[in-house]
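Re: that backbone. Tokens:
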């Protein structure tokens, strides 16, 4: 393999890792802000991910240049194609995070004790998402260890499954409260909708895990 191509390929992977670490940090900071019901800090978290689109655009352009300048072997071509799909997923995750936090700011502005408590109860989902982020980062960092990345992918899938179970329990609690909501039934319904959409983040991480496996070992993308 040409040394220039090898360096370019590793540079792309490093940039991909940098982006996912930024998203993971945003999720971690958002969790802390939600635990404190701090709407100002939620706004700061939203600002911290504004540059994600520009970062993924740079990565995509570098991959195109690699295709134009070099002739990647099949296994290396798989990796580059996977990164193009992964950067697309990053942009969707960024949108998911931004919309979720904006909605949580709106919910917290209601200053309703039950809503605040339901948000805090839902944060187990966010903790699963953070675990999935950390495992995804580890997949990138242990890319050459097939057994390790397969095991991490299984663990990410477990975190994803947990979020569905957590949501089901939360939904039951919120619906029980709706009858006593005293004019806030619509807000409770919206809260459930926003939390449900938050599950899309770990869903996308689950998809990214499968793309990492494809990049390393092939199969179906």
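Recovered sequence:
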């Amino acid at each position: 393999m040409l040394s220039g191509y090898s360096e370019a390929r590793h540079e792309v992977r490093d940039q991909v890792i940098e982006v996912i670490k930024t998203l993971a940090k945003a999720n971690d900071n958002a969790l802390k802000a939600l635990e404190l019901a701090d709407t100002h800090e939620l706004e700061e978290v939203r600002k911290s991910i504004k540059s994600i689109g520009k970062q993924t655009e740079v990565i995509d352009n570098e991959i195109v240049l690699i295709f134009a300048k070099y002739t990647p072997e099949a296994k290396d071509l798989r990796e580059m194609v996977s990164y193009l799909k992964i950067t697309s997923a990053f942009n969707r995750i960024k949108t998911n995070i931004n919309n979720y936090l904006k909605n949580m700011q709106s919910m917290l502005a209601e200053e309703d004790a039950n809503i605040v408590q339901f948000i805090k109860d839902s944060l187990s989902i966010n903790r699963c998402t953070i675990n999935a982020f950390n495992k995804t980062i580890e997949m990138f960092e242990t890319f050459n260890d097939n057994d390790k990345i397969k095991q991490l992918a299984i663990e990410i899938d477990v975190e994803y499954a947990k979020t569905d179970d957590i949501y089901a329990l939360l939904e039951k609690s919120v619906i029980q409260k709706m009858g006593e909501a005293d004019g806030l039934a619509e807000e409770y319904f919206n809260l459930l909708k926003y939390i449900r959409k938050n599950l899309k983040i770990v869903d996308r991480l689950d998809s990214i895990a499968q793309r990492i496996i494809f990049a390393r070992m092939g199969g179906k993308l």
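The radius of gyration is 19 Å. The CA atoms of residues 83 and 143 lie 13 Å apart.
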